[in-house]
Amino acid sequence: MKRILIIDDSPTEVFRFKEILVKHGYDVLEASNGADGVTLATAEMPDLILMDVVMPGVNGFQATRQITRTEQTKDIPVVIVSTKNQETDRVWGKRQGAKDYLTKPVEEDALIRVIEANLV
């Protein structure tokens, strides 16, 4: 069973994503901020990460950069899922190493499609 790490500081978003992912047969790990997410990604080596951007402390762009530029975790695909919907945000997210970028609110079908396309 594939494991997906959700890094998001919104309990509501985490609950919603977890509900969708479990329904589609994924195991779910959770972190409520970027720093904990980086630590958990290194410890657990999930198959994919869903990353929020706006979080206290280490934001999603910084956490994505750390994960995708560290030897141990660089092969874990990161999909940014954020309310930030400007083209510059998308470009910046991809420059940090994100494989894809979705804007909240995300439709279930779109989320699963992107996850399946990015799972290695």
TrEMBL record:
Pfam families: Response_reg (PF00072)
SUPFAM superfamilies: CheY-like
GO biological process, one term: phosphorelay signal transduction system
Keywords of the record: Phosphoprotein
InterPro entries: Bact_response_regulator, CheY-like_superfamily, Sig_transdc_resp-reg_receiver
Gene3D superfamilies per the UniProt record, alphabetical: 3.40.50.2300
Annotated TM spans: none
Residue span, Response regulatory domain: 3-119
Entry-annotated residues carrying 4-aspartylphosphate: D52
Entry protein name: Twitching motility two-component system response regulator PilH
